[in-house]
Design brief:
- This protein is α+β, with helices and mostly antiparallel strands.
- It is built from five helices and nine strands, in the order H-H-E-E-E-E-H-H-E-E-E-E-E-H.
Length: 262
């Protein structure tokens, strides 16, 4: 399955992708963006990473609506030709679940939540018969307006970490949700921390079910670990991929938030 970066084209990542896009497209002051968009899209998540590095995330799907599965996501991070920036190639899931994304060039932020949300809206379209554009728009509006951002403490590898948690319910009390009532209370949660390589500890989307411990749908990615890569191996793989496909960063529009759409 090939998935284009429709979030970039639709404007969700453009709302806060100053750090993901190249310098030439960063026309909006990041301080004009909502706190949620700043946490997710304009923070330099990759500042602690030096040299070729692989970030690994555990993916899990569960819930009563469909059969679940576990998989993994790998992000290969290398130094960009632009000082202070990175190039990133993703291996997003495996086998029948694999989604192909073009590489990100010369970025400062970690695109992993963008890819998670792109999969999510495609699944929402499949499950409801609604439009992925509609679901993207609701997520955009929630991140720009009603998102809750608060400090959080979490445990990773037996140690306690401090971070920030962003929560949105993008389909709560919105137009047309009566067509998809089961998903009105779907909750998206992002846990970010400067102490976790790549900046993101966990991203999840959960639709409540018949009881708190039995969700209708739930998908999540959780940071698993970091591995240093051999420089020659990383250069060879980057060179092989560099001649084909569009760069993800090249698809982005100038950042903006649609304040009138809230």
């Amino acid at each position: 399955m090939r998935a284009t970066l429709k979030f970039l084209a639709a404007g969700l990542t453009a709302a806060g992708v100053v750090a993901l896009a190249g310098p030439a497209t960063a026309t909006t002051d990041p301080n004009d963006l909502s706190p949620a968009n700043q946490e997710l899209f304009t923070t330099d998540h990759l500042t602690s990473i030096s040299g070729p590095t692989k970030l690994t995330y555990d993916f899990e799907k569960k819930g009563s609506l469909e059969k679940g599965f576990k998989d993994e996501i790998e992000a290969e991070v290398t130094d960009s030709a632009t000082p202070g920036r990175k190039d990133i190639r993703f291996h997003f899931l495996t086998g029948d679940h694999f989604m192909e994304f073009p590489p990100y060039r010369s970025v400062k932020g970690n695109p992993v939540p963008i890819l998670f949300l792109e999969r999510d809206v495609q699944q929402m379209e499949r499950l409801t018969g609604g439009s992925a554009l509609y679901f993207r728009g609701r997520i955009l509006n929630a991140l720009a307006g009603s998102a809750e951002v608060k400090p959080v403490t979490f445990t990773y590898d037996g140690k306690s970490y401090e971070g920030r948690e962003i929560r949105i319910e993008p389909y709560l009390h919105v137009d047309l949700i009566d067509r998809f009532p089961r998903f009105e209370h779907k909750l998206y949660t992002f846990v970010v921390s400067k102490d976790i390589p790549g900046g993101f500890y966990r991203v999840s989307a959960m639709t409540p079910g018949s009881s708190p411990d039995a969700p209708l749908t739930e998908e999540s990615i959780t940071f698993h670990g970091m591995t240093k890569l051999d420089a020659k191996h990383a250069e060879k793989k980057a060179s092989a991929a560099g001649s084909g496909g569009e760069d993800a960063a090249a698809l982005s529009d100038p950042p903006h938030e649609d304040k009138s759409a809230k």
